[in-house]
Amino acid sequence: MTALDAQTLASVRVSLDEVLAGTPGDLSSALAELGWADVVEADRETAAVLLFGAQGRALASTRLLDDVVTHALGSPEGTVVAYAGILLGRPEEGTEQVVVLDENAAAVLPITEVSGRLQPVRGFDRATTWHRLDTTASGEPLDVSAETLALAVAAARRALTAEIVGVCETALAMAVSHTTVRHQYGRPLASFQAVRHALAEAHAAIENTRATLEAAAVADAPVATVARAARVAKHRAGTTQALVMRHVVQVHGAMGLTLESDVHRAVTRAAALDVLLGSSRELSTRLGLDLLSGAPAEPIAAI
Amino acid sequence: MTTTEADPLAAFADEARAFLDAHAERRSTDAVIWGKGEDHTGYFSEDPPEVEQALVDQARAWQRTRYENGFGWITGPESYGGRELSGVHDLVYDQIEAEYDVPDTGVLSLIGLGMIGPTILAHGRDEVRDRYLPAMFRGEVIACQLFSEPGAGSDLAGVQTRASRTEDGWVLRGQKVWTSVAQHAQIGMALCRTDPDAPKHKGITAFLVDLSLPGVEVRPLRQMSGGAEFNEVFLTDVHVPDDHRLGEVNGGWRVALTTLMNERASVGNEASTGVARVLSDGFLAALLHESGHGEDAAARRRLAEITADLTAAEYLNRATIRRLRSGAQPGPEASVSKLLWAQNLTRIAHLAAELVGPRLTADTGEWGTFSWNELLLSAPAFRILGGTEEIMKNILGERVLGLPKEPS
Questions:
Q1: CB-based contact, A215 to chain B, within 8 Å
Q2: ipTM score of the complex?
Q3: Domain boundaries, chain A
Q4: CA B318, CA B299: separation in Å to the nearest integer?
Q5: Closest CB from A176, A211, A296 relative to B315
Q6: CATH code (residue B288)
């Protein structure tokens, strides 16, 4: 599956968790110190799954997704991405252009046309640095083939799936620890079947989505297949986060609804990530149309 | 599936293909066409007894052909006609055989060859192993599992069927239930209480029971889905020789664990032809079109969700097989697979029921309408058989998430 052996993968995972759990002040130099470029070189797809998994577990908000998209599109340095109008942060000094990315189209705007049209997103997830580009900004169509565009969207969806899986892992870990420590009626909450069954269901959903992501990361398949697999994965990630968060919040009791508990961070992050590049609802509409027009439903990965 | 020269399995796969090419036709890869052929959707057989008997005969004959050509017991010892190859070889063979149109041997393999064969091998005396193992793997002897009782299902350690000492053996007395394939079986593996004073699982002994013995009575247990897949088995003063005991006296729990370990791995990967049809490419999409819901956005989304979940479950199974291939031990992912399998089929049944509407409850002769009642009525069983959902979730909670134990 990957050029990296199990031991390397495990140690990279630990290092990434450390890097992303720290203040992401200077993420790129921390990653450089880790020798991240070599990992990416060895296996770009596995590297992305690892990196975004760690970002999800750390509940960190970064612009790493832009790198996935600009690499896939072959955009020059100094490009940032707007996902249907959402930028993951205010463009830094030296940014030259914004690519506005959608499922079926991409356009490019010089940064000079963007600066005055950005508003911070004041929404569900208070911890993001997301900005919204006003809808009158259109720009010139980006000169890439439909295949390149589809592969870029698919790569971004896989990264988002990995991140949502990471957020879910963290949320489930919070729930396991809370229900193990907290006692009621003289025993840990997690010793009650209603609680353990909810958490077991959450675990099953996460593992299933992880397997879907693994399978969607097959590089040497036709573009349409890669795109469909990424759609399935992102769709699964959306439905999984909804189920996981519902159970995790419930087993935390009312404290889970407050800002005193950290659960809200996972809930809002996962919900926000679900929206990027197609919510599970939007993707299921698209998948349904494809199926009814005769697209094959069968899995793509060989054993 | 691809194989390379470096792959030690490649030669085995080639040999399997050569055998199958010589003895079977390749399965047609055409998609199921709506309105053509059978429209059964059920999991459990509803065939009349004579049809079922013919299918069992075909299964026996095919198993014999496998055995005679070295594919009857791929992992078994050579002394009993096996090949002494790995579980991975087994998986590879199954995968290749799935490309061919061969009789379904589930009646022999799911319980007998898959679970009880390995148990006899691990815990039986030489006399019993010599007598039954080759006969089982040649397709002559079908084995069933006499475990569950009216008072002991998932909580198996509560069995009450008694086995008492006689001069030359044991006498068995009690009732078993949920016994699949007992109506076709020649032997059964029974768990009996031999020490009523010992704590639950400590006073149990396992026996192999010849079902033709006086005092054995098999009665079918008819289900709401129409068929009678399961049986009740009454044991009234059945005399069993001591050499038919498996394992130690009062050591039956260990023996049973060998059997059960082999059970969970298999559920979730098995589909009846009815269920396979439901899951085949395009069948559900055709249902949407044919029931006039092709333009119904909500129905379309549900179809997409179910299909995505089926795809995901398939990916999970494949990931498990990949892990087994690289030498990992079977783990709790079998429980995850089983949960998802039940969940997905249940959702399909409910979607179909909504789309078909009233035609689900009355047989109007219209293809692909009333037949969905089979899946709908089978679906609740998926959440129970092979370990209830509640037990699976307990296993995941304790062994994977590390949650504290329940108070006993």
A1: yes
A2: 0.84
A3: 75-143, 146-293
A4: 29
A5: A211
A6: 1.20.140.10
